[in-house]
What does this fold into?
Amino acid sequence: MTKGGTRLSGAWRGSSYRAHAAHHRRHDPAFLSEIGLGPGDRLLDVGCGDGAVAESLAARFPGATVVGIDSAPDMVRTASQRSLPNLRFEFCRAQDIAFDDHFTVAISIAALHWVPAADHPLLLARLLRALRPGGRILAEFGGIGNVARTLGLVTSIAGKPDFAGDLGGVGVPWYFPDPRDYRAMLAGAGFSVDTCELVTQQREFTEREFVGWLETQALLPWTARLDGAQATAFVHQVVSAASPAARDGDIYRETFTRVRVKATRRW
It folds into this structure.
């Protein structure tokens, strides 16, 4: 893991994420409705965060085994506080998955855009190997144009003289692919692609939810590189610019564009 990646993984706080993840959880039911697990099936949650989704699936399918992995140590510590007999969590980067023919289903929600673009062929190869023949992957993550308004404001502020020395190399810190390119990558890895499409979600936040999303999730690639007062000043400037741009009466809006993947291991 690179030095920058280490700083970022160490910056995540499970309790803070849990407090400000409602905007993700509101979109889970439709995505998860297609999952059906029977006795003996195994599900892998890649980038499990605070473990909320994995726990809900373990409770819904008590005869199945659910394993959540995450590359942020505090996320894994937080998730591991959830206790069900068919549920466990492990510290592991998505690129380092090392299971063989093990899982019936692999899912990932709001996580794969944190994996560098260059690592996605390896990630998909590892996922293919981790699935049983005929096993499925269901994923949803940031795609081309995701959170464009907020991202534009953040990168503009990061380029200011007060911050550019530390943040000049951050650029766009996520991988937001075109689904056509990602479909080809899935097929090249050995998946039969059922769906790989761009889905637009007009997400609505309260003021607390919007600011919490910025502080505990969206700004981490930048604030992880700053110290103390400088990080505080950066967050203040971003919030001051992004909040009025997003505000619509008492609601704050941002457009999320997600790549939605449904694919099957061919052999």
Remarks:
- The two ends are 31 Å apart (CA to CA).
- The mean pLDDT is 95.
- The CA atoms of residues 20 and 212 lie 6 Å apart.
- The longest strand covers residues 191-205.
